[in-house]
């Protein structure tokens, strides 16, 4: 996939990324390095060979895709230095792509080797718990933030096939709310619904009760009914992927009205087999035409051998995206981030400035303050949109 290294940069401006997995975004060099240090033998010794093993080359099945994690997760899991290092390097890689705010997600259980049942990746029992994993990732992200001058927050994932872990996950979200953990997620095989696995529903109820934000992988490979369950039962504020929502036009229209945010991952959706490999038929084209609220994201750049630039250039080259749409979707993404309102406002302001959209109008933070907090000054045509309050786009940009 040499073309990834000569890819076009089509939107070389500050960006927001809301859907990317830490354990799907590790540098191959780091996997090799840690394996050497720990004396773990891998089937490949060079970056090129190891990349070939980790990467999905053609649209794959879910089993093939998940199998890729098994190629390297045992190297990183259970190792304190490695876990902190991948978090730090992740921030550096995102900064290089021009990302100024990222929400990175992971399952703390998948990186632990004690207090987790079953112990993943055939590891021997050790002394690294999911709780300490979260501390290490928080440290790595915080050091990365300082070094590379971007904001990195995290989302903790429940796994659909492991409902017994979900209670721990929500408790960790609560415990580390002040240390950069902003939300809970549910990932994995969508055919495992929450009626059959009430552990997830209970965790999400607790999240809502405690003010922990909620996103859910839904409608990626699964049908629109999974999106419905995510919204109605799990009270999701954002949907991971959500492509198959288009099968249920009633629900789709309802979510458009609510300004529901869809975390779209173009390259991922092709290589996981979630969407038609012909990008000109991608659901995000409908989202764009309908002025839906969505972000563009990498999902698992290690496994797709991709970067955020590739997702953007794909959107431009095959889906007709313009610079104006890139700006619009990034401002929408900032507005749908899980930051507290004040920090969200600052982030949106940063984008307006970087995009040259200040015009002496939104440059004044007091104007935007009033605007986001709803003090009654800028009310003409306002409408309440979803969980994130007023939508600044309705005032400043007309597309
Ligand atoms: Zn994902």
- Order of strands in the sheet with the most strands? 1-2-3-4-5-6-7-8
Bound molecules: zinc ion
Structural class: alpha/beta
Task: Please report the total strand number as a whole number.
Answer: 8
Tally the helices.
18
Radius of gyration over C-alpha positions, nearest whole angstrom: 20 Å
Described by strand count, sense and barrel closure, the largest sheet is: 8 strands, parallel
Give the distance, in angstroms, between the N- and C-terminal Cα atoms. 35 Å
Question: What is the molecular shape?
Answer: globular
Order of helices and strands: EHHHHHEHEHEHEHEHEHHEHHHHHH
Question: What integer is the average pLDDT?
Answer: 89
Task: Tell me the β content.
Answer: 5-15%
**Ranges with pLDDT <50 over ≥5 residues?**
360-399
Percent of residues in helices comes to: 40-55%
Could you provide a short overview of the structure?
This is Adenosine deaminase. Belongs to the metallo-dependent hydrolases superfamily. Adenosine and AMP deaminases family. The protein has helices at residues 28-38, 47-54, 62-69, 73-76, 80-96, 130-148, 166-175, 198-209, 224-232, 249-257, 266-271, 283-289, 301-304, 308-319, 323-335, 341-354, 365-373, 393-396, and strands spanning 15-21, 99-106, 151-159, 181-187, 213-218, 238-241, 261-264, 293-296.
